[in-house]
Structure formats: C-alpha cells, structure tokens
Amino acid sequence: MHRLVYFSNANLDLNLSAIEGMVEMSAERNRPRRISGALLYNGLNFLQILEGPGQALTPLYLQIRTDSRHSGVVKLVHERISMRSYPDWGMKLVCDAPEHAAATRETAPREGGLSAMVDGFFRFGQAAAFAELR
Fold first, then answer.
1. C-alpha angle 47/32/24, rounded to 5°?
2. What pLDDT is recorded for position 105?
3. Per the count of CB atoms within 10 A, which of 13, 16, 49, 56 is most buried?
4. Which of 116, 122, 132 is nearest to 97 (CA)?
5. Mean per-residue pLDDT over the chain, rounded
6. pLDDT-derived band of residue 127, with 50, 70 and 90 as boundaries?
C-alpha cells in the first residue's frame, strides 16, 4: 500500500461545482483500482492525497500531471503505508466552502505529518486569499 501526495495551482476558471463533478468522476474510477483519497481545495490550490497499490498510483499520477485543470504539480510525498487515512473514500472533496466546512473538520487525518501538512495547506490558502484582497 502506498500514499502519494501532491500540491498544485488550481486553474482560476474552475468553480466549486466543476471541482465537485471532477471528484465524483474520480471516485467512480478509483474504486475498482482500489485507490482512495481526498482532494483538498483552499480556493487557490489543490493538495491531493492518494492511497492504494503502487502499480495503480504511478500511472494515475502521470495522468494527473498533464491535466489542464491545474498547473505547477509538485509531488510532496510518495511512501509505503501500513494503513489508509481514507479507507472508505474513492475520492472526497475537502475544502473551506461553507457546505464542506463540517466535513473538513470531521475528516482531517489524525496522523502527525499528514495532519500538519493539511493544516498548513488551509492556512496558506487563507493567507494568500487575504493578501489578494489587500
């Protein structure tokens, strides 16, 4: 079992409903491949956590890197894991939008390093959005 985490800049033309549709389609495609995970969105960037067999994650990541809905894809983590953080999700959206806020709090990973990465990601998005307003 492997975990792959990447960061990217969201295409500014994307809206929340397009992102929700993207996540639904990903969930359907990921289940048969035994891939689970979360797509975090802070209004500017994506942080995606993918978990599953290494032979399924590598081609998926190569495909993700060429997707025009984001740019600046940077792999942060690729590691072996003994258990999943998101075992029951084909893919789920976690973001700061009001309709997703409760899910964000309930589903944040409890694991030390991954948890800190997720917390930092949302703080970064809020700080960047605030700076843009100034």
1. 45
2. 45
3. 49
4. 122
5. 79
6. very low
How far lies 16's CA from each of 21, 32, 78, 114, 119, in Å? 9, 26, 28, 24, 20
Report how far residue 76's alpha carbon sits from residue 57's, in angstroms, rounded to the nearest whole number: 14
Long-range Cβ contacts of 23-32 (<8 Å, 24+ apart)? 23/91, 23/92, 23/93, 26/90, 26/91, 27/89, 27/90, 27/91, 27/92, 28/90, 29/90, 30/90, 30/91, 31/90
- First vs last Cα of the chain: how many Å apart? 44
